[in-house]
Amino acid sequence: MKQIILCLSGLLISLTAMSQATGAGSQEEFESRRAAKIQERDARHQSEIKYVDSLVLSRNYKFTPENFQQEPAGEMHNIYGIVYTFEMFSDNYMSIDLPYIAGAVPPYRITVMNEMTKDIQKYTAVQDSDGWTITFSSNLYSDNTYTFTFKIYSITQECELNIASDLYPTVTYNGTITPLNY
Hints:
This protein is of the alpha+beta class. It has one helix at residues 2-58, and strands spanning 61-70, 76-78, 85-89, 93-102, 109-117, 121-127, 131-138, 146-153, 158-165, 171-179. The radius of gyration is 29 Å and the shape is elongated.
């Protein structure tokens, strides 16, 4: 009986030592995989940031909105089925096909801003810690000056466009920015 207890005790000690050795090995393996995964993700993030940088600097991009809203605190309008875009071309012109909320006082009306113009004034692109802010103005239809401000987040490629006007309240769009394919 003593021999069986001694054998079982020895076996238990051996199994405990083996499990601790195996646990240490798997911890090292885990740390190695963790470091590799973090490095891989960081490289991907840096690549995405460079992608947005090149997109903005090329001045050849397309903004596709998913929703829009009149400021301040207007009703949010989602865009379904129809693809509206704002396109900026390196040839120094822009093409606008966006829903727009017009009117100085209620009731406001939804219309479509449909224009192609070379009238781009005071174009600036400034990089900050989040991504880019692009601002310019244009007289699309008349003596009314429209100011366009894009806020582009490099990591998510999310883009917010504000169109301010001398006559109408600001309209804010949320969407994505992609390269032009033409």
